[in-house]
Here is the input.
Amino acid sequence: MVDSTEVLHIYRRLLRAITYLPDSYARINVHNDVVERFRKHRPRSSPKHITKNRVEKARTTAGCLERAGHGNLDDLKKVLMQTHGRAGGRRRELIKDLLRPDESVLPKDDSAVKELIESPKAQEVLNRNPNPKVTAFIESQRRNHPRDSIKSKIRQLEIPKKTIWGHAPAQKLQDSKWRKWWAQTLDKLLPPVPQHEWDRLQDLALGKIPLDEFPRRRYRPVEEKDKKEDMAYRYLQLKLRSEAAQIEGAIFDPQRGLEVQTKTREEVLNENHEIPPTRARRRLYALIWSLTPTISQDEVTKKWTVTWGSGKSLIASGTLTQPSAGDMELFEGLPSLPELQPVDREKSARERRQRQAARQARWLKETMTTNV
Here is the structure.
């Protein structure tokens, strides 16, 4: 049986590690998720092996959160991926919201509900034909598959029109292929997030808003000494406190004594853990942004539009930016530069294929001459 004191220790360890995450949005979501899970599994009616597995999983999660708070990019990526619904429980919740049927598909009255229950064919039609929102999103992800996704591309449902004997496929075969395709599609889905969350990821990836700083580390509380402590010790404490007030950057710690702070906040944090560079963190947000879509419906046409994050800067995406006034000062007094001509990618690819074909023909001719 797992000791309740150990569970309480892990719970406090998790909450303490969450406060050091360098992302305010992640701190709120992970905190709510941890509190909800511990409250959900509070009753002691679960078998021993299940409780033990939950404790081991909580201990592993606490280690991941602590390493993420210390600046480990791999663990920080795991936390942010689960925070924004690219993995874990929030991804499943977002998929449930995406699959929730529209009001137009739901039965209107009791008679329609009864007809739906008594008619298995009507229920199959409802399950086999997702709502237009889901269909539009699946097609959008299939066309715009993120290259950084660990999941493979969504395939189209392929049901043969005829079997090898020339007959139409049986209904059981069609249902089996559809269920298999639907299960694979759900496993590969990257569900959309709300618009405000997508905008925040975009601003963090492109540098429009500053990144959250790593929270300052707190000292553990020091137990107070007995009131009957030595008078000399109390005198020295008061003496050091008065000196600390007069020295710039000096602090008085009851456990360590008088300390003079001569290092910056970043240097103090780097003594305990390595803070990743700002550029590396923005690349991490750009990666998550490229895996995150958002969906909206046009009020007039009622069509669904899916927008995916690019995950690239303007230059990396092929867009030529205009130089600033400070950049143009470097070219004062020089003749004007020639204008850049747009590159015809199709022409370049065609010429490259022609050169490859010419090299292969030349090599084949030399080989035949050598053999003769």
User: Anything to note?
Assistant: The chain has 15 helices and four strands. The first helix runs from residue 4 to 18. The longest strand covers residues 293-297. The CA atoms of residues 56 and 123 lie 42 Å apart.
